[in-house]
């Protein structure tokens, strides 16, 4: 769902990835990483989508209170291991962008 | 695909949306808006993904040289019309976040 984030400024990590065709272990890891991220200090929410057709491009955006919270999450031991296995097995390529959210606005029917 | 963006800093618009079940006209509009965005001054690239299962959450991230380029795109007449029709027909809810990309890094097999 759309993450309920506080008033800006806050921070976002945009993780855009193209998967390999190795599925084994990926789903469990993805679920576990969301659970683990939710427990980290400064975590504000996350959103994730992946195309089912064509190139399997996926975008996950996680939101954080500070750059320090993002750094700590990047260095978290279990997350580090998932990143390493990800590079070896699940991801053909990815790009991570660290951003400061300056403004936001909403629409709801 | 993953957008080829220049060295930071640059800007990102994260558009997260939940669709209604109205499909008519949506695909054509989405294609047209990407074409039109690509023609705008300061446009750097875009990435898009939507879940096929569960809540149809979609994430589109577009990248821009400046906040002014983002403002101009938001106000573009044809884009304004698409936004209006979007609120009336295609989107149940959405959130737009304007960000400054501070850092990025890549991985490729």
From TrEMBL, chains A, B:
InterPro entries: ABM_dom (IPR007138), Dimeric_a/b-barrel (IPR011008), Jasmonate_Hydroxylase-like (IPR052936)
Residue span, ABM domain: 10-98
Keywords: Monooxygenase, Oxidoreductase
Pfam family, any one: ABM
MF GO annotations: monooxygenase activity
PANTHER family: ABM DOMAIN-CONTAINING PROTEIN, BLL5343 PROTEIN
The protein, known as: Antibiotic biosynthesis monooxygenase
UniProt organism field: Spirosoma liriopis
Taxonomy of the source species: Bacteria, Pseudomonadati, Bacteroidota, Cytophagia, Cytophagales
């Amino acid at each position: 769902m759309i993450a309920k984030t506080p008033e800006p400024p806050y921070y976002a990590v945009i993780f855009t990835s193209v998967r390999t065709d190795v599925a084994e272990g990926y789903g469990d890891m993805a679920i576990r990483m969301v659970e683990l991220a939710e427990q980290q200090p400064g975590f504000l929410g996350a959103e994730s989508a992946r195309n089912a057709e064509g190139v399997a491009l996926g975008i996950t955006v996680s939101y954080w209170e500070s750059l320090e919270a993002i750094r700590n999450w990047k260095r978290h031991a279990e997350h580090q291991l998932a990143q390493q296995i990800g590079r070896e097995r699940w991801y053909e390529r990815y790009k991570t962008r660290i951003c400061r959210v300056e403004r936001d606005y909403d629409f709801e029917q």
